[in-house]
Amino acid sequence: MLENGEPVLTVGAAGGPTIISQVAQALIRRIDLGLSLDQALAQPRIHHQWSPDAVRLESRLDEAIQGGLVSRGHKLAPVANMGVTQAIQFDRENGRFIGVHDPRVPGKAAGP
User: Pick from 4, 14, 38, 43: CA 20 to 30 A from residue 23's CA?
Assistant: First the structure.
């Protein structure tokens, strides 16, 4: 993501068919919902790819949301964790990049 021609945010993921869902959800949660980058990456994820015809979701997703999906006719396929997402954001106040590592797996973001 660029702001005034300068980089301010980048997101990448591993997880095969869930990569696009992971990146989209991280961006929506950070940009549109205003969550901090670490909060955006930590939120439960959902994914649907039409085959199989089921909504794959992290089992810790709010039960009301899960119930709403079922009431609309969706089949749920709960999993413990889905994919791994990493992100870097430019902190204008401090003039530094901040790296965030997905809390689902061991690791850390580091840089100069």
Answer: 4
Enter the DSSP assignment of 28. Answer: I
CATH fit for domain 2-101, picks 3.40.50.720, 3.40.710.10, 3.10.450.50, 3.60.20.40: 3.60.20.40
Q: What are 38-66's pLDDT values in tens digits? A: 999 999 999 999 899 999 999 999 999 99
User: The tokens of 8 are what?
Assistant: 């301010």
Q: List all residues 6 or more positions away from 84 whose beta carbon is below 8 Å from its beta carbon.
A: 13, 14, 15, 102, 104, 105
Domain boundaries, the chain: 2-101
pTM equals: 0.89
